[in-house]
Amino acid sequence: MDIISNSKHPVSVILLSFFLIVCSLAHFGRAVNTITKGQSIKDGESLISNGEIFELGFFSPENSSLRYVGIWYHQIDEKAVVWVANRNRPISDERGTLTIGNDGNLMVLNGNSIAVWSSNASVVSNNTAALLEDDGNLILTNSEDIGNLGKAYWQSFNHPTDTHLPGMRVGVNSALGENRVFTSWKSASDPSPGNFTMGVDPQGSPQIVIWEQLKRRWRSGQWNSVIFTGVPTMATLTSFLFGFKLSPRESDGSMYFTYVPANASYLLRFRIGWDGNEEQLRWDGSAKKWSVIQKQPADDCELYNFCGNFGICNALGSTKCTCMEGFVPKHFEQWRMGNWSAGCIRRTQLQCQRNRSEAGESGGEDGFKVFKNVKLPDFADVVSVGQETCKDKCLQNCSCNAYADINGIGCMLWRGELIDVKSFEKGGNLLHVRLPDSELGGRSKISNAVIAIIVVIGALLLGASVWLLWRFRDMSKGQEISTDFSGPSDMVVGGSQVNGTDLPMFNFNTIAVATNYFSEGNKLGRGGFGPVHKGKLPEGQDIAVKRLSRKSGQGLEEFKNEIILIAKLQHRNLVRLLGCCIQGEEKMLIYEYMPNKSLDLFIFDPAKQALLDWTKRFAIIEGIARGLLYLHRDSRLRIIHRDLKASNILLDEDMNPKISDFGMARIFGFNQNEANTNRVVGTYGYMAPEYAMEGLFSVKSDVYSFGVLLLEIVSGRRNTSFRLEENSSLIEHAWNLWNEGKAMDLVDPNIRDSSSQNQVLRCIHVGMLCVQDSAMYRPTMASVVLMLENETPTLPVPRQPTFTSMRSSVDGDHFMEAHDTVSSNDLTVTMVVGR
Ligand SMILES: *[C@@H]1O[C@H](CO)[C@@H](O)[C@H](O)[C@H]1NC(C)=O
Ligand SMILES: *[C@@H]1O[C@H](CO)[C@@H](O)[C@H](O)[C@H]1NC(C)=O
Ligand SMILES: *[C@@H]1O[C@H](CO)[C@@H](O)[C@H](O)[C@H]1NC(C)=O
Ligand SMILES: *[C@@H]1O[C@H](CO)[C@@H](O)[C@H](O)[C@H]1NC(C)=O
Ligand SMILES: *[C@@H]1O[C@H](CO)[C@@H](O)[C@H](O)[C@H]1NC(C)=O
Ligand SMILES: *[C@@H]1O[C@H](CO)[C@@H](O)[C@H](O)[C@H]1NC(C)=O
Ligand SMILES: *[C@@H]1O[C@H](CO)[C@@H](O)[C@H](O)[C@H]1NC(C)=O
Ligand SMILES: *[C@@H]1O[C@H](CO)[C@@H](O)[C@H](O)[C@H]1NC(C)=O
Q1: Which residues participate in catalysis according to the annotation?
Q2: H helices, E strands: number in the chain
Q3: Ligand 1 atom at minimal distance to the Cα of residue 120
Q4: In terms of DSSP bridges, do strands 289-296 and 278-284 run parallel, antiparallel, or are they unpaired?
Q5: Residue 711 phi/psi, 5° resolution?
């Protein structure tokens, strides 16, 4: 003030001094990091932390004119706001102030001096001050305490908005439950609270969770005292690893998470974005931008319970979601369409869930299947185990579905559904999922059996070689060799036979994945007993899967027995049954896949007819005859096919015919021992008269169908196609030509000239014998085979057939269930003959 007293020009001196004061205030203002009672910060002014890292002041978000008080990084041009005071009540003009109110609290006032925000702490001192620290924390404390860490009445770190900064403590207290600390902005330009929150779920072992309103959106997996188990990359990202710390438990049971950057000079922040994604960002000084170190949820698989309960998500899999082994989709159709939210359910009840009486019968204890590299399910109970193992603990309670014994956590049990499980490429944990014995058995038992056999054989071979060596030594001494050496080879045969009787049961998931969830694209067609899908097993083998329509007249055991019997039928002209798959109502037969599909696609297709010359057609006729003979006579079961037709003859890559759908009548429970049935299964045009009209069937009704098929192969025309064009049938037509001595006219013009006339005429003759009205006069398949092979010099003379099944088979009294077949022209019908 010397200047003023010595001055002769008071006005200029006053102006000058005013200027100096303003200058010093302005300078002071830029460096200042505290406000005390009576001071205030206007819009446009700010507090800056001592190290010039953080700044507190008024700001408007991008594309908004509303004013908020917030904290951001001081020296960084790309403004990153880490905290907002009045996020619910913005100021509409630039007349706002930040000050310390009469009650000692920090306040934001609008232009009319109305408080739009208050720190709202119970302050006992009359002399408070607010201090912005270099870690971004704004502290309200006694003004005398500034600089010596006195009591804070309030601090912004305890009331964060959407950002976690290093040094901030996030409380974990099981007694208080979920602690939703961070709340996202509503949008990029609106800091008011949005739909997403992030915080800690203390249950079991604490984990970080992102919620979308009430629902969980993502979780980090349980803390194992080093990393969060659901984020295995934490162990490889060095900037991430070891940053998190969980404090020791305090006397009131609470703990807190902190995060310390690997290098204290890093500018790091975690933020829950308005789009629901958490990001960890680091300021890259050289690129002058925020780089994202990690982001959660990183992909769909990270979304909470993406595959539903008991599902497993695999981001790299061809289909993201699969059911855990032993589980099947709850809503099959939805699952197939990619709506996985309903999840999976147990295929088979746990042993402990069954009633005692039942339990007695089907034996085995429940066991566990190990899943490797998984994100452990949510809602675990961590229990203490004394002398017992974690496994025992789980087995003690039937509601325990899984356990995991994890370093750093202990024994975890899951007593409800298994929620939010995903599989990692590497890292993750071992999860032991409880399954009934029957679901575990299969593979491991077979492999045990195989191992046992190998061991036995190995021991025998070893014994044999020792014995040989010994004999050899004896022989060299001039003694005789015994020829009795059958032991080991008998054992090998015995072993493989024992294994061979077991029909492979395919896992439902395997089949579902193999056929791309029975997608339309994989559908080969629809046979009489259900749709057929193409599939590829993981080992690369092509298969055809027949899904039997629901109503087979049999119980499960009967069904299995039938399948096992049918699987034993093996002949080069029968399609091979590889196994079956049963899931509740769903029953499937797995066959070898036939690349050339079915015969009807060749012989009735003008474009392909010529591909089958007479030699091939004759080979096909012979093959079918042999296959049928095997079914009728040589197999142990005496199968009557009852639905022999062109679409049921499949062709392998060398055009060898293979009969399919044999044994279906057995599976569907039509009694094979009676010659009369009240359910008729067959196809118009192929049904023998006595069968179509009276339900009488025998091997001879199959012979009739064979005769029709034979005539179709020779002529290249469908029996049924005549009905429309000539109001007759193929059989009638064939008979007329045969009778007039013009049988060669019946032959498909594509092959007529190149065929051996004798052979063709013989074939037609056999065909005419097969389609005679009276079953008695029809030959057996054994004679058919002989006749075709020209072993019988003279053939009987056929009688004129008068019956055509498609005219007379449809009776008002018949109840019919018809299914579309591969080719729209034939219908397989099942009818109940009215009594
Ligand atoms: C301030 O705190 C009291 C109780 O501590 C509460 O009732 C009041 O709603 C709070 N006011 C604001 C603006 O947060
Ligand atoms: C605080 O100051 C106000 C006046 O500014 C006075 O009325 C009040 O009694 C004081 N309270 C305490 C606890 O010092
Ligand atoms: C601001 O508005 C511009 C133009 O409409 C838009 O491109 C930009 O994304 C907006 N920014 C934010 C943060 O919403
Ligand atoms: C928040 O939820 C509401 C209601 O569910 C919705 O309309 C809005 O789009 C959501 N906002 C965001 C950013 O997802
Ligand atoms: C921390 O980072 C600074 C600047 O990036 C670097 O100079 C320093 O060496 C780092 N310190 C450590 C311990 O890595
Ligand atoms: C998915 O399935 C659930 C029930 O399982 C149903 O509520 C939901 O509407 C389905 N979503 C779609 C897109 O079909
Ligand atoms: C077990 O027995 C109880 C009553 O004894 C019965 O209500 C329940 O349905 C039975 N459960 C099964 C799976 O049979
Ligand atoms: C099994 O667990 C359930 C659910 O936690 C519990 O209610 C029940 O008491 C337990 N039973 C036994 C025998 O421990």
Answers
A1: 643
A2: 19, 43
A3: 1
A4: antiparallel
A5: -65, -35
Ligand 5 touching residue 387 (CB < 6 A): no
Query: Ligand 5: does its nearest atom lie under 6 Å from the Cβ of 265?
Result: yes
What's the CATH code, domain 597-835?
1.10.510.10
Q: Is pLDDT at 653 greater than 80 in this prediction?
A: yes
| Ligand 3 geometric centre to CA of 620 (Å) | 73
pLDDT tens digits, one per residue of 404-422: 999 989 999 999 999 999 9
CA separation for the pair 367, 435 (Å, rounded): 5
Read off the pLDDT of residues 95-132 as tens digits, 9 standing for 90 and up: 999 999 999 999 999 999 999 999 999 988 888 999 99
- The angle formed by the CA atoms of residues 530, 535 and 537, to the nearest 5 degrees, is 130
Helix (H) or strand (E) holding 424: none
Quote the tokens at residue 394: 């789980």
Distance from the alpha carbon of residue 120 to the mean position of ligand 1, in angstroms: 6
**31-158 and 479-593: same fold?**
no
163 Cβ contact partners less than 8 Å away, ≥ 6 residues apart: 81, 82, 83, 182, 269, 270, 271
Ligand of minimum distance to the alpha carbon of 401: 8
For ligand 8, atom 8, name the residue with the nearest CA: 397
Least confident of 136-150, 307-321, 820-834: 820-834
Element at 281 (helix H, strand E): strand 278-284
* Displacement of CA 740 from its chain's centroid (Å): 65
Which residue's CA is the nearest one to ligand 6's atom 14?
339
Q: Point out the ligand nearest to the CA of residue 330.
A: 6
How many angstroms is it from 107 CA to the middle of ligand 2?
18
Mutate-to-test residue for ligand 4 from 195, 197, 210, highest number of ligand atoms within 8 A of CB: 195
**Close Cβ partners of 521 (under 8 Å, ≥ 6 residues apart):** none
Residue nearest atom 7 in ligand 8 by C-alpha distance? 399
Q: 3-state class of 172 per DSSP?
A: strand
Q: Is the CB of 189 under 6 A from ligand 3?
A: yes
234 pLDDT band, cuts 50/70/90, is: confident
Ligand nearest to the CA of 285: 5
When pLDDT is averaged across residues 477-494 and rounded to a whole number, the result is 31
How much is the mean pLDDT over the chain?
Answer: 81
Atom of ligand 1 nearest to the CA of 117: 13
Architecture of domain 479-593: 2-Layer Sandwich (3.30)
Fold of 31-158: Agglutinin, subunit A (2.90.10)
Q: Whose CA is nearest to atom 12 of ligand 6?
A: 339
Question: Is the CB of residue 166 less than 8 Å from the CB of residue 261?
Answer: yes
Q: Is the CB of 399 under 6 A from ligand 8?
A: yes
> E strands of 494-648, at which residues?
523-527, 530-536, 542-548, 577-583, 586-592
Nearest to 598 by CA among 643, 652, 642: 652
Kindly list the domain boundaries of the chain, sorted by start residue. Answer: 31-158, 168-298, 311-440, 451-478, 479-593, 597-835
For the Cβ of 188 lying below 6 angstroms from any atom of ligand 3, the answer is yes
- The protein residue whose alpha carbon is closest to atom 7 in ligand 5 is 265
Cα–Cα distances in angstroms (integers) from residue 701 to residues 618, 640, 706, 733, 785, in the given order:
22, 8, 9, 21, 16
Residue with CA nearest ligand 6 atom 9: 339
**Nearest CA to 272 among 211, 327, 220?**
211
Q: How far is the CA of 121 from the centre of ligand 1 (A)?
A: 8
Pairwise CA distance, residues 131 & 177, whole Å: 32
The dihedral of CA 740, 746, 747, 748: what is its sign? positive
Quick check: CB of 78 below 6 Å from ligand 3?
no
Give every CB contact of residue 82 below 8 A, 6+ residues apart in sequence. Answer: 54, 70, 71, 72, 73, 136, 161, 163, 165, 269
**What is the spatial distance between Cα 632 and Cα 698, in angstroms, rounded to a whole number?**
10
CB 617 within 8 A of CB 711: no
